[in-house]
């Protein structure tokens, strides 16, 4: 087919009515809208398959569903009605304290006599809906990107005699923690209860202008207001078939005159005047517009990839629901809490950059620049404070960014810690984030006024801190930390990578802006003569710093930082082999909730490793059915890692070369589709199944030149304007072509152009139940029993005097360890069978435990030595009849010896 025919075929395809099909593998179909330059997605139905559904009431507050409007978040659970704990991101320094608890109850109770219950978080609408039978519905929503949320009640039962709404706080008399200058004001609570509604306030004398008022009023029903105690106020609502409770968490920071009480009342008056229906419509439209900016599909036949995709959308929602405030969504406090304030203060003294970067860095590719602005603004708004402090601390005219930085740019919790006080590379990461924001948006004004000035000061700091070796002529970093893991070392690889990452873009930016030619010359000299990365004696991998080796003080994988976040190596780089060796031999795989291993695997093009890494992180850290973790080192880092690792598996553009599906898993059932934003301002869309990549669609937003790595190596490729003819024919490894702003380009194989596929719109079917990834990882709740495969993970059993530990070689990446006299692992309600197979490892020669069934001792179980406590496993089998529903226990009795247990499987009949 000639080019004219190709173009005509594509144009006719746009004008045809198109099919709507579920998002499944369809080798003969494609879903690119060449007129719009994005994937054709019925977002409402597609995202409905990712709804989070609880079919049983949530009675554990830690399992509460998360809902938010951009600035406020709430966790919602079902104890004697409906309970919400609300948090406002700007309410306190580093979101140290959540705002209060809302409890809605009725007489008779909302659940009284209800045969059916379902709580559904619709990600597409941003709405949480709780239904009791067909006559009671409670809807939690909000005014978009505001400090107001709403609870709408539709209760058509006859005989409802009372409705109450309580606002309360836990006992704050002994409250501690948080980087606040006046703790007394956070222990002081004032209340009001009048004809306008109810409210409670604290932090009203905070000298930093934080503090808030949590207030409530009602639309659609009469009410009276009462003060119940020093920390509790109540609305007594006249029962009505439908009414809306409006809740404001007015921060002093955002209130006129920093007066949160009248601000809360103004917010409530305004939203009541607009009304529930109009506010709900605005709120849903806000979320609809949010989702329309990008699209990701990541699925396979087993459903594991679909679970990963579900979490991608949930985690995007959870972070964005608090991501539009003036201050960042804190990595552990975020916009949600259901645990009073007893855990938030652990990390509430600062923003740890290492942790915060995980939360935020996916949002450029997913085309949500306003979200990452909240993070970048933390550093740019503190420009003067950082520059002044750098002069005081180092005597250097430049900027040093503390790794743990307070809201106002302070370094109080960096300077007093050996872990952080000698980290210099944080500033480069902050500067690179600003530069990337410019590269994705083409915002020249942002480059000139914000990004470049910050980059310049970081480069000046490094230029001053480096020392030129008189013998070698090389610039060296004589003493610094290789982040938190290696202290006071020479030529920390993080510093060398930071310079190689930042200086080239600082140079090019100064050229673009026509400024600082003298500094540019200095930076070029440093780059040309910078000390090489430390290399191992065998020459096959990098070292984290110059010899001698020192002990590790944290569980980071320092050499893999070159892959991400510094982006100085990766697929196609001359030192790829070294980077690969470093990743394969990294000392601390998946060691913490912030571990970026899967991101770095994607940067190496390791599709299977990235896919497994996404699973491993969820298997280890997603412990609650709302998607959250019980890990006290952070709440949201692993969520952000998940988002970025999936984006990087589908699309990379960090080095200004667009790569589609650079790290797709090898699973032949894998189906991937996406519309994501690439550097240079290109909306890139593509689809892949077991036959490979079908096409690449590129919408040029600003008319920059594009470079695309050819996804069909050696094949003839045509790049054409969607409304015209070819702009390039090539089989080169890289396809370079000029673009025009707001124009769509289609990259296709000459042998199978886009017109060879039938166009379809992607859709989906609403989810109705819980979903499962492994024995432990699940989302939502079900009234149905989980399918019993006969395999029972030891770490999911009842553990007595032993505990679960991580091991990547173990099933579900965990094993049960530390078994000693009196320890036991108990599996309850197992299936029937005639044989037990037990996977284990042990250095004991042999190991031995005692088997009990339904409390009766059956026999000793011998475990031949594997010469390992991790990594190498074996299976021992025991022929024993197991009745259905039995309790099986492996116990360490007198005369037994140590074993680590991985899982038990019941087989036979």
From TrEMBL:
Entry's Gene Ontology BP terms: carbohydrate metabolic process
UniProt cross-references to InterPro entries, sorted A to Z: 6-hairpin_glycosidase_sf, 6hp_glycosidase-like_sf, CBM6, Galactose-bd-like_sf, GH95_cat, Glyco_hydro_b
GO molecular function, one term: carbohydrate binding
Pfam families: Glyco_hydro_95_cat
Transmembrane segments: none
Protein origin, superkingdom: Bacteria
PANTHER family from the UniProt entry: ALPHA-L-FUCOSIDASE 2 (PTHR31084:SF0)
Protein name: Uncharacterized protein
Organism: Capsulimonas corticalis
